[in-house]
Amino acid sequence: MCGIVGYLGSNGAYEILIQGLKRLEYRGYDSAGVALVTPAGDLNVHKSQGKVANLEQVAAAGCIDGSLGIAHTRWATHGEPNDVNAHPHVSQSGDIALVHNGTIENYSVLKTALEEHGYSFKSETDTEVLVQLIDYIKSTSNCSLEEAVREALLQVEGAYAVAVVEKNDPDKLVVARKSSPLVIGVGENETFIASDATPIIGYTDQVIYLKDNEMAVIRRDQPLAITSIDSNIPSTIDIQKLKLSLAQLEKGGYDTFMLKEIFEQPNTLRDCLRGRISSDCSHVTLSGVELNKEKFLQAERITLVACGTSWHAALIGKRLIQDFCKIPVEVEYASEFRYGNPVLNEKDIVISISQSGETADTLAAIQLAKEKGAFVYGVCNVVGASIPRNTDSGTYIHVGPEIGVASTKAFTGQVTVLTLLALAVGQLRGMVDSETVKQVATALKAMPKIIKETLKCDPEVQNISRMFTYAHNFLYLGRGYNYPTALEGALKLKEISYIHAEGYPAAEMKHGPIALIDHEMPSVIIAPSDSLYDKIISNVQQVKSRGGAVVAIVSKGNTAMNDIADYCIEIPEVPECLTPLVASIPLQLLAYYIAVNKGKNVDQPRNLAKSVTVE
Ligand code: AGP
User: CA of 344: how far to CAs of 27, 252, 298, 327, 377, in Å?
Assistant: First the structure.
């Protein structure tokens, strides 16, 4: 949540910051702002409610000079989205400007103390308290900006990534982080800072991922200094090479990132599978499993923790791991797990699943699992994010940057990695027969082609979407492997079209939700030709006999549903455990087109942010 970006170098900071904000806008778009320090030592701040485009209009009327600056795109936590609550926040003296991603939990205590010292506050944000505190410490102890920042952060409880500049010093940028991410880009005579690496791409491929509890002082023409916030001890500087390209951040001819990401799935799954299945499909290798064989052999239980779409992938992972490894598996919302006093020991494996690798609840869950002695494994997309850096081992899904707020290619990447993991661990523990491995691995290897074939349903789904643009409610039903697919389909629709949708196990419908069904309540039913197909047919009939319209996702060639459902969308036939991968494609497209028909901004739906770094 919230994106921060900063620049100190030999070029004009404004354009770089604005471009950086646009790349970070997926993290929040309630307001945007920029603070620039001119060579003469003036501080110019421009901010505006809404998107970065609004900020550009506001800034155009003012001074945008300076080669030092910080900027912010906000996802509101404390205080409504408006101009005043927008970052950067400036101290009462007018000397210090700060941008912040995170939450200051003890802001109210600090605010009262500062008010007693004569400070008054313009905004309702927790962040303004931090900039006033830095100002107070600096003015009363006559110390440097970095000393004041350090001292202030020691008084702060909560999570933060901050960037701070000072009016009279056009040559210094101070940044720090605790539980919120921060990346430093090291260029030729210029340094970039950002919440993730996307604003840095195209300028430099040399990056430093600031570690938790570290701060950095970036000075013009001087070496970078990184220290721990608590002890001021210098840290070793670990410069890494960034492997992202500009093309990965562009829409590539599609109207939206979401549509591009849906259509990218044949390629992203190819990248995700690369090098992980042997050429004869008899063996699956994941280095994270190979390197930790003992842990996987000794495991008595696996717990999957995640949020949102990643949690839906975890539910599918549970079925896969139980089927192929015969280990008891639990799935927990990370937010519930972290406060649920889980009973864990060193024979437990906790697998955290996250696209961004920065989700606050998931990070807290893995921290807790580690404290309790469990072996913690991460399934993540963003390389170098906090989750892969805080887990004992793991697997990247390698689907490339996902920019649309609604997760699509990350979901199929997560399910693919969980399938590989279940097969690899099942082989290791001798719990899956070689015929099953071969059958599933062969189909997985063909998945890029199969998904390409599935995507041919696009025009048909677009047509069907027109029948449902004005529906107010939807039911998504599935069984077995596809109950989580139903949950995911419903979430996609909710997120981007704002239509209420519920995912339900199809057979549970008769225990309550069936009361909702009438001609105004359409149902989407995931009914591939699997072991539960006959059962789900009767569920469809139950819906139809109560007047509900049915969109059925069926396996190619299965015509039995044609006479029952109102619309059938065919998907290629695959082994049962892989049906969620294929069935999720028409569900992504259906949600997409209904939202587009309604004129919604699918890439940046209201109230949402891509990376949920607050509780
Ligand atoms: C997905 O469409 C959502 N926007 C959201 O539920 C997301 O999956 C969730 O916030 C978890 O994010 P993560 O995978 O980055 O941890």
Answer: 33, 46, 14, 15, 14
* C-alpha dihedral sign at 268, 274, 277, 279: positive
pLDDT, averaged across the chain: 94
User: What are the distances in angstroms from CA 310 to CA 144, 325, 449, 495?
Assistant: 44, 21, 24, 15
pLDDT of residue 404: 92
Residue 561 near ligand 1, beta carbon < 6 Å: no
Distances, alpha carbon 211 to alpha carbons 90, 245, 386, 490, in Å: 26, 24, 9, 37
Asked whether 309 lines ligand 1 (CB < 6 A), one says yes
Q: What is the pTM of this model?
A: 0.81
The distance from CA 595 to its chain's CA centroid, rounded to whole angstroms, is 21
Q: State residue 612's pLDDT score.
A: 79
Mean pLDDT, residues 324-353 taken together: 96
3-state SS string for 424-462: HHHHHCCCCCHHHHHHHHHHHHCHHHHHHHHHHHHHHHH
Residues near 488 by beta carbon (within 8 Å), at least 6 away in sequence:
309, 312, 411, 503, 580, 584, 587
Residues 494-520 have pLDDT tens digits of: 999 999 999 999 989 889 888 888 889
**How far away, in angstroms, is 489 Cα from ligand 1 center?**
14
Tokens 């069984």 locate to 479
- For residue 421, the model assigns a pLDDT of 98
Binding site membership of 406 for ligand 1 (Cβ less than 6 Å): yes
**Torsion angle of C-alpha atoms 231, 232, 233, 238, degrees rounded to 10:** 120
Would the CB of 103 count as within 6 Å of ligand 1?
no
Compute the 3-state secondary structure of the chain and give helix, strand, coil in percent, each to the nearest 5.
Answer: 40, 25, 35
**CA-proximal residue: ligand 1, atom 6 (nearest):** 308
For residue 474, what are the β-bridge partners?
A: 501
- Mean pLDDT, range 441-455, rounded to an integer: 97
Mean pLDDT of 126-152: 97
Confidence of residue 75 (pLDDT cuts 50, 70, 90): confident
**Active site members:** 2, 610
